Amino acid sequence: MQEEKIKPEGLATPKEEKVLQFSGESVRLSEKIIEKFLMACALLTILTTIGIAGVLIWESFEFFSEVSLWRFITDTQWTPLFADKHFGIMTLLSGTMLTTFIALLVAVPLGLVIAIYLSEYAPKKLRTYVKPSLEILAAVPTVVYGYFALVFVTPMLQSWFPEIAGYNALSPGLVMGIMILPLITSMSEDAMYAVPRSLREGSFAMGATKFQTSFRVVIPAALSGIAVSVILAFSRAIGETMIMAIAAGNQPRFTFDPTVPIETATTYIVEVAKGDVPQNSIEYKTIFAVGITLFLFTLALNNLSFWLKKKYQENYK
User: For 313, left (φ over 0), alpha (ψ -120 to 50), or beta?
Assistant: First the structure.
């Protein structure tokens, strides 16, 4: 009688070993393909950034070969499309900074108050509904914000302050503050919510109230995240275009008066890019000079936010 061969327990047959080997090789091949694809995506973003920076630098170099950098920085008039040409970028930057600071004056205090409430006071169920509702504001097209500023906010301001012009910096600045509010609120609330519960309990054990704990424990512990949210909102406000183009007036002037029409750097780029200015002319090249100025501003702000987060971020174990 032929004896039946019994396979030892835990050992695979040669056929099963081949299947397992083939399966393992397939998994490794799939992982390598995914890894290469992710690397290609990362390189694509880097190459895109390098390409944008290269175009701006090249075109700006041609502009500054005709217009001195000192004249570009110090002149307080911006009239490249007129017979008497002036190329003072400070005119556009003053309008940009004016509306940006108005927006931050609205968004930062209101955003932090909402973030503190959602993180420290609101019930968990209410938080799950309120936070997504606030973030819907970020999905509203900026052109809608622009017309809201023009047809609603400006007439309301004029009813209170008749001296305000029909186009002004105050109205779009206020509306832009509403637009960047979700950015500050969401990121600040995330930073506060990540603060360990043990810090709050330690503060309560020392006799502190919830208000004292919120402002003396939670906010200092989440300060790096809050600072990053403000800087990113600042960068977002600098680059805003449509609200300014619709409601600010597009009149370049070196002023910090929010009641008069102004022009920002981004709205000037839109104005020239419409096609009325001949390409390769000095007037057309101004948009690249303005563009690289904005690029350097936003680059500096992003690096500042990265440095603040790295330097002051608290690591809790």
Answer: beta
| Token representation of residue 260 | 């008069």
Check residue 43 and report its DSSP letter. H
Kindly report the pTM of this predicted structure.
Answer: 0.82
| Residue 2 pLDDT | 47
Rounded to whole angstroms, how far apart are CA atoms 211 and 204? 11
Locus of tokens 């973003």:
45
Q: Read off the pLDDT of residues 70-122 as tens digits, 9 standing for 90 and up.
A: 888 888 888 888 878 888 899 999 999 999 999 999 999 999 999 999 888 88
DSSP assignment of 79-134, as one string?
-TTSSS--B-HHHHHHHHHHHHHHHHHHHHHHHHHHHHIIIIIS-HHHHHHHHHHH
Nearest to 199 by CA among 214, 185, 186: 214
Are the C-beta atoms of 283 and 277 separated by less than 8 Å? yes
Residue 78 contacts by C-beta under 8 Å, 6 or more apart in sequence? 86, 87, 88, 89, 91, 92, 252, 263, 268
Query: Is residue 155 over pLDDT 80?
Result: yes
DSSP three-state, residue 221: helix
The pLDDT assigned to 173 comes to: 93
CA distance 244 to 175: 10
Query: What residues does 131 pair with on adjacent strands?
Result: none
Which of 153, 151, 159 lies closest to 173 in space, CA to CA? 153
Query: CA 138, CA 176: separation in Å to the nearest integer?
Result: 11
**Element of type H or E holding 147:** helix 142-148
Q: What is the DSSP letter of 7?
A: P
Residue with tokens 């709050």: 200
Residue 25 pLDDT level (bands cut at 50, 70, 90): low
